[in-house]
Design a protein that fits this description.
The chain has 105 residues and is an all-alpha fold. The protein has 4 helices and no strands. It starts with a helix and ends with a helix.
Length: 105
Protein backbone atom coordinates (compact mmCIF):
# COMPACT_ATOMS: atom_id res chain seq x y z
CA UNK A 1 0.00 0.00 0.00
CA UNK A 2 2.88 2.40 0.76
CA UNK A 3 4.20 2.01 -2.79
CA UNK A 4 0.78 2.94 -4.17
CA UNK A 5 0.78 6.03 -1.93
CA UNK A 6 4.24 6.95 -3.24
CA UNK A 7 3.07 6.48 -6.84
CA UNK A 8 0.06 8.72 -6.16
CA UNK A 9 2.38 11.29 -4.55
CA UNK A 10 4.60 11.30 -7.64
CA UNK A 11 1.64 11.55 -10.00
CA UNK A 12 0.22 14.41 -7.94
CA UNK A 13 3.57 16.19 -8.07
CA UNK A 14 3.63 15.97 -11.85
CA UNK A 15 0.04 17.23 -12.01
CA UNK A 16 0.65 20.27 -9.81
CA UNK A 17 3.82 21.19 -11.68
CA UNK A 18 2.06 21.01 -15.04
CA UNK A 19 -0.90 22.98 -13.69
CA UNK A 20 1.49 25.60 -12.31
CA UNK A 21 2.97 26.05 -15.78
CA UNK A 22 -0.57 26.37 -17.20
CA UNK A 23 -1.51 28.91 -14.52
CA UNK A 24 0.80 31.47 -16.16
CA UNK A 25 2.14 32.80 -12.88
CA UNK A 26 -1.09 32.10 -10.99
CA UNK A 27 -3.00 34.45 -13.28
CA UNK A 28 -5.46 31.76 -14.44
CA UNK A 29 -7.92 30.53 -11.80
CA UNK A 30 -8.58 26.88 -12.74
CA UNK A 31 -4.92 25.87 -13.21
CA UNK A 32 -4.09 27.72 -9.97
CA UNK A 33 -6.74 25.75 -8.05
CA UNK A 34 -5.50 22.49 -9.59
CA UNK A 35 -1.94 23.41 -8.56
CA UNK A 36 -2.93 23.97 -4.92
CA UNK A 37 -5.12 20.84 -4.69
CA UNK A 38 -2.52 18.51 -6.16
CA UNK A 39 0.33 20.14 -4.21
CA UNK A 40 -1.49 19.31 -0.99
CA UNK A 41 -2.45 15.84 -2.29
CA UNK A 42 1.18 15.13 -3.16
CA UNK A 43 2.31 16.01 0.36
CA UNK A 44 -0.46 13.90 1.93
CA UNK A 45 0.32 10.85 -0.21
CA UNK A 46 4.05 11.23 0.51
CA UNK A 47 3.34 11.46 4.25
CA UNK A 48 1.26 8.27 4.07
CA UNK A 49 4.02 6.47 2.16
CA UNK A 50 6.57 7.59 4.77
CA UNK A 51 4.69 5.71 7.47
CA UNK A 52 6.35 2.52 6.16
CA UNK A 53 9.07 3.51 3.70
CA UNK A 54 12.52 4.88 4.58
CA UNK A 55 12.67 8.66 4.21
CA UNK A 56 15.70 8.81 1.91
CA UNK A 57 14.38 6.18 -0.48
CA UNK A 58 10.83 7.53 -0.59
CA UNK A 59 11.90 11.14 -1.04
CA UNK A 60 14.38 10.25 -3.78
CA UNK A 61 11.75 8.23 -5.63
CA UNK A 62 9.14 10.98 -5.22
CA UNK A 63 11.40 13.71 -6.56
CA UNK A 64 12.71 11.42 -9.29
CA UNK A 65 9.19 10.65 -10.48
CA UNK A 66 8.49 14.37 -10.51
CA UNK A 67 11.64 15.20 -12.47
CA UNK A 68 11.12 12.49 -15.06
CA UNK A 69 7.36 13.01 -15.37
CA UNK A 70 7.49 16.78 -15.70
CA UNK A 71 10.38 16.58 -18.14
CA UNK A 72 8.48 14.13 -20.36
CA UNK A 73 5.30 16.23 -20.13
CA UNK A 74 7.30 19.34 -21.02
CA UNK A 75 8.69 17.64 -24.10
CA UNK A 76 5.33 16.19 -25.18
CA UNK A 77 2.99 19.06 -24.29
CA UNK A 78 5.17 22.16 -24.59
CA UNK A 79 7.61 20.90 -27.25
CA UNK A 80 10.57 21.58 -25.01
CA UNK A 81 13.86 20.33 -26.42
CA UNK A 82 16.32 18.22 -24.44
CA UNK A 83 20.04 18.34 -25.07
CA UNK A 84 22.03 15.11 -25.20
CA UNK A 85 23.53 16.00 -21.79
CA UNK A 86 20.04 16.42 -20.29
CA UNK A 87 18.96 13.06 -21.72
CA UNK A 88 22.03 11.38 -20.19
CA UNK A 89 21.27 12.97 -16.81
CA UNK A 90 17.64 11.79 -16.95
CA UNK A 91 18.84 8.27 -17.77
CA UNK A 92 21.10 8.44 -14.70
CA UNK A 93 18.12 9.51 -12.57
CA UNK A 94 16.12 6.54 -13.88
CA UNK A 95 19.02 4.21 -13.06
CA UNK A 96 19.25 5.70 -9.57
CA UNK A 97 15.53 5.22 -8.97
CA UNK A 98 15.70 1.64 -10.22
CA UNK A 99 18.71 1.00 -8.00
CA UNK A 100 16.94 2.38 -4.93
CA UNK A 101 13.89 0.23 -5.61
CA UNK A 102 15.85 -2.94 -6.43
CA UNK A 103 18.56 -2.63 -3.78
CA UNK A 104 16.57 -0.90 -1.04
CA UNK A 105 15.11 -2.69 1.94
Amino acid sequence: MEWLMLLLAGGSEITWAMAMKASEGFSRVLPTVITVVFYVASAIFLALALKKLPLGTAYALWTGMGIIGTTLCGVLMYHEVLTPAQIICIIMIVCGIAGLKLLGN
